[in-house]
Amino acid sequence: MNLTPDNQFSSKASQLLSWGHWFTFANIGLVLLISTIYLFADSQPGTPLGWFYMLITWVSHTSFITFCAFVLTIFPLSLVFPYPRHIRGMAAGIATIGISALCLDAFVYYSLGYHINIQALPEIISLLWSTLTSSPAITTVFAGSLIIIILGLELIASNHAWRHLDRLKNLKFARYATSILVTCFALSHSIHIWADANNYFDITKQDNVLPLSYPTTAKTLLARHDLLDIEKYQQERNLQLEGPKGRFILNTTLPNCEANNQVINFLVFKNSDQLNNFVNERSDLSALDNILQPVNRQDALFNLIYGLPAYYNSEKLREALPPWAQKNALVGLSGFTGFGFKDIKGEHSINMILVDKLEHLPSENIIAFSLADETSKELITTSKAYISNTILIKNSDSFKQLNDIIYSIVSEQLNCPALADAAMLGKNLNTDYQQEGVNYSNGVLVTFKKDRITLVNPDGSYKQMSGSEGFLLEQSLDIPFLIHSIKELQKFTRSSGS
């Protein structure tokens, strides 16, 4: 076949190739705009280097994926079917499908914390169905309008690039932009290699944010060139969960807390039937959904009373008041001796009562929940609590824990946020959007990030599952997030000066 410049086929293919590059540049801009959703879906970096890495990775990775999509679809079509009018229409259609899929993936990631995958298909379908059924007209109009707008932008970009191709060829923008993108791509991977080798978690925790993101890792690359201290790397990378539990050490002096005169009553029922009978007799209680609590009852009570994961649960600690209550004697306990906790008599700002009978119970400022069924084979379970209308705790679809509830009560109802932060490990449900959390029960590390729950056994085996649906997720372990969770869990194992 004659492919000289004078050949008509070659000329058309060359023009289409040049047009395709400018069409791709236009799509890179649109993809960058849409992919900002991923950047705001998780917690933001805490250091300038983390922000810099996030920005250059966002620019380079999304551009690379967009260019690859062009090479795999539009480019071969231009070679085998070099008819400009048809190619421009097909390219607009293909780009619309791809960018619509990106929008869908961004929505799923923002809502659930993971990208579209076959294993999570039931949860993704459930999310889409609930979104559609909650506002069918608005959702349909929005989705349809979005696809039409994307298609319109693609047709405009496609036709504009073709009609002004000669003028665009004379612009130097493409060379400068390409150099910037290549530099960002190389720099982002180089920074990630350094961060992985030095356990710089503000960077490595961003590994799975963008779709199809598989950054180069440091272990094999640097070890091959004898630049990596393998022993130190393994010590930092493979944090051990075996052995004794953490010894609680306060990192700061407990602040003075002048609690108000309001009394909060926690009613702990031994089973859900008791709780339901109590709730049915009340009209002033509202449900607090999606509470993750350990099936192990002592661990669950330790979460509630001490505001800490059971990683710190020890007989020595249970013999004393919870650390957050030691200075101000804020809590009273009644009926918990059978679970290894010390009863504390008297009137206090917070009273926790293990309910034996439904008679003579407090009637105001109530938070009521039941312990899990001990016969359950699960490690954790999802339950509900019921709160009085006078207690303001924000309810949301995200998961929350018992230590979050007591943390919120001390912070908000008793006006002691500094005390809660100094002696408890939880989040204020009134101010913090609960995207992730950590717990510990029966020697198993429990972490959750949006809908994904990860259970890591002491022997290093693990499983991941959907919190709302319960199905297993066949995904690789998110090591950066796991290490971040372990460090949060161990917040009180060493003094601030060590």
Automatic annotation (TrEMBL):
The keyword Transmembrane applies. The keyword Membrane applies. Residues 7-245 form the Inner membrane protein YejM N-terminal domain. It comes from the Bacteria. InterPro entries: YejM_N. The chain crosses the membrane at residues 21-40, 52-77, 89-112, 124-153, 173-195. Pfam families: DUF3413. Keywords: Membrane, Transmembrane, Transmembrane helix. This is Sulfatase. The lineage of its organism: Bacteria, Pseudomonadati, Pseudomonadota, Gammaproteobacteria, Alteromonadales.
